[in-house]
Amino acid sequence: MKRDFLLRDLAQRIHDIEIEEHHLHQAANPLAVPGLEEVLPDGQLPAGAIVEFLSAHEGAGAWTLALIMARQACGEHKVLVVHDGQKCFYPPAASQLGIDLRRAIVIRPHRQAQALAALVQSLRCPAVGATIGAFDGLAAVPFRRLQLAAETGGGISFLMRPASVLRQPSFAAVRLLVTPWRAGSVSDRRTPRSNTPVAYGSPLNDVRCVRIEIVRFRGAKAGRSFLVEIDDEKGDVHLSARLAAAKTLARSARASG
Amino acid sequence: MKRVMCIYLPGWPLQRRWRDRPELRDKPLAIVVGQAASLSVGRIAGPIRAGWKPTLRRGKIVIHCSARAAQAGVRPGMTLAEARTIATHLLVEEDEPAADIQALRQLATWAERYSPIVALEEGPRPESLFLDITGCAACFHGEDRLGQQALDELRAQGWHARSAIAGTMNAAWALAHYQDWRAGSVSDRRNSDGLPPVANAPGSPCKSLPIAALRLPDETIQILADLGIERIGQLVELPRPSIADRFGALVVERLDQMFGQLPESIVPHRSLPDVEASCSFEYPVERHEAVCRALEKLLEQIEEMLQKRHVGARCLECWLYHETAAPLRIEVGLFRPGRAARYLGKLLRTRLEQIRLEEAVTGLRLRVPIVETIAEHQLDLFESDEAPSVHALPALIDQLTSHLGRDAVTFATLVADHQPEYACRFEPAVFSYPFSREPTASADGMPRRPGIPPTLAVGSRLNSGGYFGRRPLRVLPAPAPIEVMSVIPGGAPLVIRRGAEKHAVERSWGPERIETGWWRGQDIQRDYYVIETEEGTRFWIFRRLDDGRWFLHGCFD
Predict the structure, then answer these.
(1) pLDDT by residue (tens digit) across B196-222?
(2) In Å, how far is A12's CA from the nearest CA of chain B?
(3) Residue A20 CB: number of other CB atoms within 10 A?
């Protein structure tokens, strides 16, 4: 009993310290992801935070979400730094998402060790609003170095990592598990499976659904998950229509008593 | 405020010949060019060649004629045969542009007594000199006296010259060529009580000049004349957007140059010696610290030299000499021109740390091959949001480039090409666009990107209805072969297999046919599909139409 009490007390104290730290930091721009904004204590992500996107599959939508959030974090004056170690980043698609390529530096290092040093250097720079990069293996020391660099520069670092590192320790302020959500798994499925491909530009079919699970959110409650829809054409993210409809129903039910 | 003096030497090739051979002064003389060369002469506007249509004539063409030849009826633009018919005693000389330029350069060297910066007029056959007299007038008791003194001294040497002083090169050029020159040296300040002239001011003397003073093509001048617009003042009063729409962007550009709305620089005719410093050791040095200490001293010398010229380095070369091995060259590029020894030393040290010296160093040499003017910034009293971007970003790019190499730190540029592999280019951040030569560099220090088609202007969103179709964020450097199952051959994919991975296709969009690249030697014919798998991931695949093989090209991550 004493031990339980002690653990609860320690957990509460850690939580209080984290909340205090969170308020010490200068607030950054809104995240542009509706579900996430609701979870945050002040609707914003603190400057100098590390956001970890974990996904089990390539093509889950993590890069798109990170770029949309980075666009918000950079605002009009700061610069986005994309660390493209795999040389897969495709700027025309980023431009479609509203990224100003004049304010996007793409770093294509020859070695992974160089990539990490470059990321630390970028994060320390006050002109950098956000960095994005895929870093599979990150030991505790370099991770902590990243955190300190981000806190120094005030930019937000979006790290793309595989879901296999879920159990590993992390210095990220936010850990999000991103899973693709196929249209067929939602009850209001729009297009039945068919062998006939749909022509481009059909807006109803262009939106893709992604499930975001909050693994860790310093200063806020973790464990929540929600569905968002990514509109690649408009570069927007919004709550899934199904979820939004359910929320409206619940709100009206509460209002009616 | 910048002040420029233009010295115009009308009929310079004739004047040069008269100086070299005074016996030609009183004779009917014509200078001729062949038809091909005459086309380039036609670009130089001037009263002496007004109305000349070089492309309509055959054979040799008269480009200059003396007063005696003119009295006989010879005119610039005539064919040599016509001129000889009119003036039977006509002396004919072939055009010698190189000798003319050489003589004008000598005159430019002489003119350095009025200004340290003297330039020749641009073009194949220059006839004018530009002197940057900013701050020089006080040494001659005013601009008027400076201009008059220059004219008097030129006349004493036997040259026939006109001069004009204005706030821009174009205005000075126009006044020197078209203003009433009988009054001597012309200044655009003459009627403004000694105050600096206001660009585009109502009383600007440039406004009374003819349209030809803008150095526009003959066709444009003719169109303007047909509309009754003969003076620059009439043109200036028209709505600015309509000028570009109706008469072309060149007209607006020329007006902006004349009234100081576009930046311009006077490139001195005499190139300055290279900025470089070197040293040699008494005995070969192996220790890295010793090399760095010697470099620091050389960098201090370089900084001093750059400071004297009011320029900064865009590139710094460091040569390490050995006793037997070939000298080693290290290059450091800068995003923006800089000259601080400490800063350059830091970048150089980063590069040196990555290099293993094969042999002891016997000597060092530092050279700055590319210099640019450093734009001075007014310091803000209060901090602004833009300040970090302006000052910290170039330092970051320089450091990353020194650390990772020039090709690893890039800006992406969109290219109007349908083939996805060529639809963007990664350009090194340093050296890619000199700041001082980029007139449209934005105020916040970020460059406007050259070479981007207007339809693909960066910052604007490209939607599926635009130049590109829907594109994934992650594209493989080389398309990876996959196996695809369809109901009918060449139909939409049902199942895809990549190595051991197998995905059932839930939905697909397409095809988007891309047929391009024949001029590159590869005729590309592909049908692209966006597919959504049962797991919900989206891929970008294509079928090669030549052989029907399928490839994975990217994923919508």
Answers:
(1) 344 445 457 788 888 888 888 888 888
(2) 37
(3) 10
| Interatomic CA distance for residues B552 and B557, integer angstroms | 14
The CA-based dihedral angle spanning residues A110, A115, A117, A122, taken in that order and rounded to the nearest 10 degrees: 120
Annotated domain spans of chain A = 26-182+203-239
Cα gap B167→B134, rounded to integer Å: 9
Partners of B524 in the β-ladder: B516
Instruction: Say what the ipTM of the complex is.
Output: 0.79
Tell me if A106 and B412 make a contact (CB, 8 A cut-off): yes
CB contact under 8 A, A89 and B473: yes
Nearest to A165 by CA among A77, A4, A53: A53
Our CA-based measurement puts residue A68 at a distance from the nearest CA of chain B, in whole angstroms, of: 12
Q: How far apart are CA A254 and CA B210, in angstroms?
A: 80
- pLDDT tens across B251-284, in order? 888 888 888 888 777 888 877 778 889 999 989 9
User: With a threshold of 0.80, does the pTM exceed it?
Assistant: no
pLDDT tens profile A207-251: 788 888 888 876 666 677 888 888 877 777 877 765 555 555 455
- Min Cα distance A7 → chain B (Å) is 40
From B397, B471, B534, residue closest to A90, measured CB to CB = B471
- Report, as ranges of residue numbers, the positions in chain A whose pLDDT lies below 50: 23-24, 185-194, 201-204, 249, 257
Q: How far is CA B468 from CA A96, A139, B526, in A?
A: 9, 40, 15
Q: Pick the closest to residue B502 from B493, B514, B491 (CA basis).
A: B493
Using a CB–CB cutoff of 8 Å, tell me whether A113 touches chain B.
no
Residue A57 main-chain phi, psi, to 5 deg: -120, 150
Cβ separation B412–A198 shorter than 8 A: no
Instruction: Inspect the interface and report whether the beta carbons of A95 and B414 lie closer than 8 Å.
Output: yes
CATH 3.30.1360.110 correct for A26-182+203-239? no
What does the block give as tokens for B415? 């290219």
* Partner B, chain A 167-196, Cβ-Cβ below 8 Å: 179-185, 191, 193, 195-196
Contact B536 A233 (CB under 8 A): no
* A59 with B429: Cβ contact below 8 A: no
Chain B residue with the nearest C-alpha to that of A71: B459
Do the Cβ atoms of A195 and B491 come within 8 Å?
Answer: yes
The answer to whether residue B472 neighbours chain A at the CB level (below 8 Å) is: yes
Average pLDDT, rounded, for chain B? 79
Q: Both ends of chain B: CA-CA distance in Å? A: 55
